[in-house]
């Protein structure tokens, strides 16, 4: 029997605050977990430990030894397992107790007592399945198109913001803020400061887009639920920004806890051959710093907002995407709460 975490009895409000379960979430950049190293992270309000096994694959366990509850993240990497530093109990990547050095043959050995999450690596990031039933198989995952298209070149940008995860995601479903907050950006200075929007349904989510402007600024965003939640958007680039088409962003936001978010932005362009090399060089030497300045503007704004800022709003037509997103997650949180209670 797997030692279940507190997700077995969460309310809808708790789920809404700390993140949706029964889906994939981005956890951290792949290079955070080095060979022979152990990495502690907090995601969806719980502590986890990641390490690479002898085969190079990442394992992700609840950061709690099944013996006395000591943090496995303070343990010793033994190749295919971790040895707890407190009493030496060894736990493998499936969460099974492999050895109890202090008492060989102990009845703990051979039992799967630590929650282990299925993981995948894509685009330089580690994704994990956060399920309500630790014994159930993970759900399917359809990856964002730009992360699997061989004609797309992408850079992963990672940061941690002291703001609720919903603020970070809603920021991406708010194209109009680009014309104000980012009006001095080299890529978002153009376009009108007034607009009308619409929601356009797709088989994997919806577009939230301007009806009276296209190809000028941050004019649209696509929200997708494909096993993981992500957004895709494109920003037209001037010729001075190098070869390739529009500059695209795939974004994900994973709750660290109710007040903090891990944000992932894959910045990409569709480029091939020598143009790919030129674009990557130009990005690293000139454009990357500018893009971080834009992200910093978002971070400063969201971190300055009160945690309950969304409880005293006066929304209008530009906020249709935000309202749609909130209804979706509120409904999903209520479904999950009933499922856990049942």
TrEMBL record:
Annotated SUPFAM superfamilies: Bet v1-like (SSF55961), ISP domain (SSF50022)
Which PROSITE patterns does the protein's record reference?
RIESKE (PS51296)
Residue ranges annotated for the Rieske domain, each copy included: 24-128
Keywords assigned: 2Fe-2S, Dioxygenase, Iron, Iron-sulfur, Metal-binding, Oxidoreductase
* E.C. code: 1.14.13.-
GO terms of molecular function: dioxygenase activity
Q: What class of enzyme is it?
A: oxidoreductase
What PANTHER family is this protein classified in?
3-KETOSTEROID-9-ALPHA-MONOOXYGENASE, OXYGENASE COMPONENT, IRON-SULFUR DOMAIN CONTAINING PROTEIN
Identification of the protein by name: Aromatic ring-hydroxylating dioxygenase subunit alpha
**Species the sequence originates in:** Rhodococcus artemisiae
What high-level taxonomic lineage is stated for the organism? Bacteria, Bacillati, Actinomycetota, Actinomycetes, Mycobacteriales
């Amino acid at each position: 029997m797997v030692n279940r975490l507190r997700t077995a009895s969460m309310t809808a409000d708790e789920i809404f605050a700390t993140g949706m379960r029964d889906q994939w979430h981005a956890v951290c950049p792949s290079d955070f977990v080095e060979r022979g190293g152990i990495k502690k992270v907090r995601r969806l309000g719980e502590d986890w430990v990641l390490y690479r096994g002898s085969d190079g694959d990442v394992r992700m366990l609840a950061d709690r030894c099944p013996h006395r509850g000591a943090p496995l993240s303070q343990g010793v990497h033994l190749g295919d397992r971790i040895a707890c530093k407190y009493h030496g109990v060894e736990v493998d990547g499936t969460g099974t107790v492999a050895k109890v050095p202090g008492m060989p043959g102990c009845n703990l050995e051979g039992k799967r007592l630590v929650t282990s999450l299925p993981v995948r690596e894509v685009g330089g990031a580690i994704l994990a399945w956060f399920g309500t039933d630790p014994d159930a198989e993970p759900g399917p995952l359809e990856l964002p198109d730009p992360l699997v298209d061989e004609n797309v070149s992408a850079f992963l940008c990672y940061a941690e913001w002291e703001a609720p995860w919903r603020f970070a995601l809603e920021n991406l479903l708010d194209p109009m803020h680009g014309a104000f907050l980012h009006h001095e950006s080299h890529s978002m200075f153009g376009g009108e400061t007034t607009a009308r929007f619409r929601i356009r349904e797709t088989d994997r989510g919806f577009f939230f887009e301007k009806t009276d402007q296209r190809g000028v600024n941050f004019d649209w965003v696509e929200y997708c639920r494909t096993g993981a939640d992500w957004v895709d958007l494109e920003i037209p680039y001037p010729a001075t920004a190098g070869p390739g088409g529009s500059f695209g962003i795939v974004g994900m936001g994973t709750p660290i806890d109710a007040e903090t978010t891990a944000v992932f932005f894959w910045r990409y362009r569709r480029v091939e051959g020598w143009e790919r090399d030129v674009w990557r060089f130009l990005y690293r030497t000139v454009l990357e710093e500018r893009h971080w300045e834009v992200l910093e503007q978002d971070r400063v704004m969201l971190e300055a907002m009160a945690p309950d800022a969304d409880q005293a709003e006066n929304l209008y037509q530009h906020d249709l995407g935000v309202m749609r997103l909130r209804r979706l997650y509120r409904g999903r949180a209520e479904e999950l709460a009933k499922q856990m209670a049942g």
